[in-house]
Amino acid sequence: MSMPCQLCHISNSFSLMPIKILSVVKPIIDEAVQKMLCSNIAPIGSMGIADLGCSPGPNTLLLISIIIDAIHATSCSSSSTEFRVFLNDLFSNDFNTIFMSLPAFYNQLKEEKGDGFGSFFISAVPGSFYGRLFPAKSLHFVHSSSSLHWLSQVPPGLDCQAAGKALNKGKIYISKTSPQCVLEAYSLQFHKDFLLFLKSRAEEIVGGGRMVLSLMGRSSSDPSTQESCYQWELLAHALMSMVSEVNT
Ligand SMILES: C[S@@+](CC[C@H](N)C(=O)[O-])C[C@H]1O[C@@H](n2cnc3c(N)ncnc32)[C@H](O)[C@@H]1O
Predict the structure, then answer these.
(1) Which of 24, 147, 196 gets mutated to test ligand 1 (max ligand atoms within 8 A of its CB)?
(2) pLDDT at residue 179 tops 90
(3) Which of 124, 150, 171, 213 could be bridged to 95 by S-S, CB 3.0 to 4.6 A?
(4) Which residue has the least CA distance to atom 10 on ligand 1?
(5) Which keywords does UniProt give here (predicted)?
(6) What is the mean pLDDT of residues 70-78?
(7) Is the CB of 214 under 6 A from ligand 1?
(8) What is the overall mean pLDDT for the chain?
(9) Rounded to an integer, what distance in angstroms lies between the CA atom of residue 53 and that of residue 89?
(10) Residues 6 or more apart from 62 whose CB is under 8 A from it?
């Protein structure tokens, strides 16, 4: 089946958006890493860094480069510090693609920074960030970009029929036509998920550690404005037309 061009357009803008976001967030990551290294939270012999919702995409390694640059830019890091970098995503993530790109990444780092770019031990931690992923007090810096808008599940009730009618028929998120109860269901699900995320990280991060999270926001308090829903409306529309193609 051919992909509707609307879907190609959305998929392109979805994959470019995280790169833009990462470039905006870079100074914040720099500051967080440097402040952490320069504070006396503990003599750090080994620093735990986690990227939550890393995806198999190119941004995963870009983030590691940003962190290495931030570490190099401060006089507070010791050359003997070892860095444990954990890449997390769902069990279904294609971690092999990341691993296959590591040799080229290491070579590039060596070329750009010489042998002294530090000891980095990169590994994968599959599982949902809505729950514990790491041992207690094992992380110093946690990053997550463009991932926390993924809820742990469709809010209860939205995927079943009420009075013979699906509550959010033809939509994959809040839209202009969604009734108020759909908005409330999404809001409640986000609150539950985000609370669980914060509670889990609170156990895993050492006192004085840092966390940088970036996720989509909106300037209006109304979640059904064009600004908030446009891409999800388009995506829902494209999916519905693909389904109708299959059914005809
Ligand atoms: C839009 S991608 C962002 C990828 C990358 N962080 C970036 O900035 O390019 C969102 C990622 O979050 C992952 N994700 C969604 N829910 C998750 C969860 N509960 N636990 C871990 N990863 C999750 C998805 O599998 C996906 O790879």
Answers:
(1) 147
(2) no
(3) 124
(4) 147
(5) Methyltransferase, Transferase
(6) 79
(7) no
(8) 85
(9) 4
(10) 19, 22
* pLDDT of 132 over the 90 cut: yes
Domain extents for the chain? Answer: 5-149+205-224
Q: How far apart are CA 23 and CA 28, in angstroms?
A: 10
Centre of ligand 1 to C-alpha 129, Å, is: 9
Q: Please give the angle made by the CA atoms of 189, 179 and 8, to the nearest 5 degrees.
A: 75
Contact by Cβ (8 Å): 189, 155: yes
Looking at the domain that runs over 5-149+205-224, which CATH code has it been given? 3.40.50.150
**CB distance 93 to ligand 1 below 6 Å:** yes
Beta carbons within 8 Å of 84's beta carbon, 6+ residues apart? 46, 47, 48, 49, 121, 123
Ligand 1, atom 23: closest residue by C-alpha: 53
